[in-house]
Write a structure and sequence with these properties.
Length: about 300
């Protein structure tokens, strides 16, 4: 049971990679924010169905939702929505490849902020494994965006360090970090209770909040999205299913282990993404990406020695 969070994180990363590939296809007919919204809207019924089945098999009933639980979940839902909006905005800026690399600082931010302000407790081996995974992620991103990154060398040092894309990317990483930590704390507040029960209830409430928050934004800014749902119902349903399975995996892992460890292992999603890109989208894989994959796998395997 102690190491169950690792396969849960890997499973969640796989589902997220598949869902992202499906969203990439859907983005040709819907806006990026629209594809983000349907993830929550159509994932919610699958999460609810899973919870009903879980309660039928294992019991547990409806938990008492304390004020701290609601605040943690709300903080996580809003932080994740803001991070998604910033990520979308960042890709419209120049040097988006550099920005993508900077957003991966959420791995380190989660460990640092979690250790100081939240209940994260990392061992020495855990820190080493986290840094090895981070190095692997950077190698993969450099390999993928090498041309874009080389093009950015013409900018000044001050522009690189204090440019808009850097600020947006850092705030984006910070918002993702806060969402992980808030959701992790929410699963702990529901104790005592079986980890899958705590994780599923947390993701259900969090997804419901995101439907409301993102739904208001869509209604005010992109109401045309609602008319695009039925024509794209098949791929949207697939996105909802894979999103629900991935979210259940993430939140159940959060219920068992530190958010920083879970997110570090979850970076294996990048390997799945490259595999899907190679098999489905016929994109080339560079030598640096392969080296990054190997480095990341070594880092993930190191977490098996944490306990």
């Amino acid at each position: 049971m102690e190491l169950l969070w690792i396969p849960l994180s890997v499973f969640a990363a796989l589902m997220q990679a598949i869902r992202t590939a499906a969203q990439k296809t859907l983005s040709h007919s819907m806006s990026t924010m629209g594809t983000t919204y349907v993830r929550a809207l159509f994932g919610f019924p699958f999460i609810a169905l899973f919870l009903v089945g879980l309660l039928s098999l294992q019991g547990g009933g409806v938990p008492t939702f304390s004020r701290s639980f609601i605040l943690y979940v709300f903080g996580g839902a809003v932080s994740q929505a803001l991070a998604t909006a910033l990520l979308i905005h960042m890709f419209s800026l120049k040097s988006f490849a550099v920005g993508t690399m900077l957003t991966k600082s959420d791995i380190l931010l989660t460990a640092l902020i979690g250790s100081v302000l939240f209940s994260e407790r990392l061992s020495a081996m855990g820190w080493i494994g986290l840094l090895v995974v981070f190095a692997g992620v950077l190698l993969m991103l450099i390999g993928k965006f090498e041309g874009h990154i080389l093009a950015a060398r013409g900018t000044t040092l001050s522009s690189d360090l204090f440019g808009k894309v850097t600020r947006v990317a850092f705030i984006c990483a910070l918002m993702f970090t806060m969402s992980y930590l808030f959701f992790r704390e929410a699963t702990l507040v529901l104790q005592p209770g079986q980890f899958l029960w705590r994780g599923t209830w947390t993701v259900l409430i969090g997804t419901g909040m995101q439907i409301i928050v993102l739904g208001i934004w869509i209604l005010l800014r992109e109401p045309v999205v609602f008319s695009q749902l039925w024509p794209n119902r098949r791929i949207i349903g697939f996105i909802g299913l894979t999103s629900a399975l991935g979210s259940i995996g993430w939140f159940s892992a959060f219920a068992l282990q530190n958010a920083s460890y879970v997110r570090a292992v979850g970076q294996i999603e990048a390997i799945f993404t490259i595999a899907i890109s190679w098999c489905y989208f016929r994109e080339k894989v560079t030598g640096l990406e392969l080296l990054g994959m190997a480095t990341m796998v070594v880092g993930v395997l190191m977490f098996y020695s944490v306990y």
